[in-house]
Amino acid sequence: MTAATTDLPRAEAPRAVTLWRRFARNRAALLGLFLFGLVVLMALTAGLVEPVDPLRRAGDPLTRPFTDWAVPLGTDQLGRDILAGLFHGARISLLVGVLATLLSIGIGVLVGALSGFFGGWVDDVLMRVTEAFQTIPNFVLLLSLVAILGSSIEYITLAIAIVSWTAPARMVRAEFMSLRHREFVDAARNLGVSNASLIFREILPNALPPVIVYASVIMALSILLESALAFLGLGDPNFASWGNMIGQGRSVLRTDWYCAAIPGIAILLTVLSFSLLGEGLNDALNPRQKKT
Amino acid sequence: MTGPVLDIRGLRIALPKGADRPFALAGLDLSVNAGEIVCLVGESGSGKSLTAGAIMRLLPEPHVHVAGGAILFEGRDLLALPEREMKAIRGDRIAQIFQEPMTALNPQKTVGWQIDEVLRLHTRMDRKARRARVLEMLDLVHIPDPTSVHGAYPHQISGGQRQRVMIAMSLCLSPRLVIADEPTTALDVTTQLQILKLIRELQQKEDAGILFITHDFGVVAEIADRVVVLSQGEMVEHGPAAEVLNAPQHPYTRALITAIPALIPPKPRNFQGAPVVLRAQGLTKTFAPRGGLLGGKRRTVKAVDNLSFDLHRGETLGVVGESGSGKTTVSRIVTRLLEADTGAVEVNGKDLLACSPRELREMRRHIQMVFQDPMASLNPRKRVQDIIAQGPIVHGTDPATARARARDLLELVELSPAAATRFPHEFSGGQRQRIGIARALAMEPKVIVADEPVSALDVSVQAQVLKLLADLRDRLHLSLLFVTHDLRVAAQLCDRVIVMQKGEIVESGVTADLFADPRHPYTQQLLASIPGRGWTPPDLKTDAA
């Protein structure tokens, strides 16, 4: 045998390094990463800014921002420190965002994988259920779920997951349907690999990249949904969430707009950071999509 | 007209930074005269298709661009023409025939409309004249019923007919130059021969120059007047066809020609006494398309009809046929990747088709498969050692032992053990196919089913992989069920051959006998259609690479 057939190509850089290089090529994605880091930092240091309780009275009600350095961003109509609320709110928003996303992606992957892998009646049944969820407007379903379950933070997270699993389910199903007929799946089946391993070890890793990208969208949406609930007064009143702050600031919007505007800006930047991150992840994970 | 239609001088095409070489094409000189067929031959990645792109000025610029040289078409340098004039030349004076007629035709428009469009854009003919010309062209390319094909959509006609339509479309303006980029690669052998004949015939009638791009020396022998051989962007040899084919000078050309499987079957070996390891009986499979809620009844297709065969220990049985003959279905039924309607597959004395799912997983170790597409058959997210060790681990081998054995297997298929920790995309096609073979061997099977294992590979790599398979078969006493469309490949490796047509066996027998004296008309037709069958590659064994 000639040497040519046994010659190996030059070793490639480790996968993580190539992924980072592709991600970092997108400037906007780096900005997204920076903003996201900032929010995480806020959530982590919330205890330093306000060690006792963000809902306690910290100064005179409706102090304007930058007038009293004990409460730099001012206070709301009950005299609560807006800066402290912002930091503690970051915790709630991230918590709800991460948990709801994990839950909804989990449900979505399971339903989509079973549906796409087995096809036939399994697919029919699961997809009819998915469609049933999709036909009801998201927010209406969310409101009814919260009305039924009650508005503690756990149930709100669960309800958000329940309204947002359908899109990832459809996505995973489509990926599975195209991947299950690939030869490498047949090859693994031919080795005697069980169905569960085929689904989770062979196909799923290949189907995940678009789902991971979409997770950033769900994360942003869950934060928005939680804020929207709180704005309508259906949020968990025991926590200082950004939505709660906007909801309460609404009543003094005409005289003291900053009570609603400051947490509003926080939500805007957080959601923006997820959207930019998602774009960067897409560049990193699906490099071929953009080239043409 | 004097002088060549096309004259390429010192053409260089630059590749983007970071590619495996700076120039896709480094100094190509080539000329095509009127009424001449020039074959541009090379393996994948040799730069032959980019040449076509450069002539048509359809390179994916600015990444890939012409870095030097001149392309003279009827004396004018195409590279210096403004885009507007180039547009007029494209399609009108220079036409192109593509490899895959299905993707080159618009599925939403009728065949007639698409040919008509060419005339509408480039001529001032009125509607009636155009229709007459379209029908005339369809007749010229020997389409049986031009009027009905005129109104048909591309999916309603066969692959061979689609390629005829493409040829009609490219010739309807009587171009001076036709660039045919692997026009017969996607077709069956019998259709390929017809299309090659057609191209020859039309070219003589129209007196156009043809630049024929191919990787197949059989096709070259069939059609070429002159040959240009490309290797890695370098022109290594050129000259009249007979000279290049029968007395190649450059070592690369010699290596390519030596790699072509000769049509001489191996000496028959006797397997009468050997035990039967795989016995298929009465296999039948019908595909009934699942109708939707509103879909009417559709035709059911009998893919395999009452098929039986025996495979002895150490033997290689070839299953040969054209697309749609059911040969791939056979390979999937035998490995039970596809459920048969009726029949039995006895492996090791046990019916594989009657096994429960648990028994089946256990039985799979005896019968393994090598797949067609080395790109798709390896999980892109797994390291090579995990791919090879997966089977044994599933069947209870300790992972560390299985991985150690995977390295030994890599050596067995002539890959460096350093490959073990790499991912599949880092390898070339031939190397990947070796990994696929190692994966099958890891299970220590009795039977290996190989479904077109070399059809996606270049001819020189093909020869190496075939040699490896034959070598392993003899060393490990394996039995092979070898599915292929390529009779040359079958001739080289198979002890016995089954010829299939429309799901049935039309003829079977010892390879040497069957090739020397085919009985069934279909087998005779198949053998007569092998490209370049009249040409025996010269014996160059002395200094083969």
From TrEMBL, chain A:
Domain ABC transmembrane type-1 intervals: 90-278
Membrane association type: Multi-pass membrane protein
Record SUPFAM superfamilies: MetI-like
Keywords: Cell membrane, Membrane, Peptide transport, Protein transport, Transmembrane, Transmembrane helix, Transport
GO cellular component: a single term: plasma membrane
Subcellular location: Cell membrane
Matches recorded under InterPro entries: BP-dependent_transpt_permease (IPR050366), MetI-like (IPR000515), MetI-like_sf (IPR035906), OppC_N (IPR025966)
Pfam families membership: BPD_transp_1 (PF00528), OppC_N (PF12911)
Spans through the membrane: 28-49, 92-118, 139-167, 211-234, 255-277
Main location: membrane
GO biological process terms held by the UniProt record: peptide transport; protein transport; transmembrane transport
Family assignment from sequence similarity: Belongs to the binding-protein-dependent transport system permease family.
PANTHER family: D,D-DIPEPTIDE TRANSPORT SYSTEM PERMEASE PROTEIN DDPC-RELATED (PTHR43386:SF1), OLIGOPEPTIDE TRANSPORT SYSTEM PERMEASE PROTEIN APPC (PTHR43386)
Protein name, per record: Peptide/nickel transport system permease protein
Species, as recorded: Rhodovulum euryhalinum
Lineage, highest ranks first: Bacteria, Pseudomonadati, Pseudomonadota, Alphaproteobacteria, Rhodobacterales
From TrEMBL, chain B:
CDD domains: ABC_NikE_OppD_transporters
Residue intervals passing through the bilayer: none
UniProt entry tagged with the keyword Transport: yes
Example of a GO biological process term: peptide transport
Membrane topology type: Peripheral membrane protein
Pfam families: ABC_tran, oligo_HPY
Localization terms from the record: Cell inner membrane
One cellular component term from this protein's GO annotations in UniProt: plasma membrane
InterPro entries per UniProt: AAA+_ATPase (IPR003593), ABC_Ni/Peptide_Import (IPR050388), ABC_transporter-like_ATP-bd (IPR003439), ABC_transporter-like_CS (IPR017871), Oligopep_ABC_C (IPR013563), P-loop_NTPase (IPR027417)
Residue ranges annotated for the ABC transporter domain, each copy included: 8-257, 278-527
GO molecular function annotations of the record: ATP binding; ATP hydrolysis activity
Keywords: ATP-binding, Cell membrane, Membrane, Nucleotide-binding, Transport
Similarity annotation: Belongs to the ABC transporter superfamily.
Protein's name in the database: Peptide/nickel transport system ATP-binding protein
Organism, scientific name: Rhodovulum euryhalinum
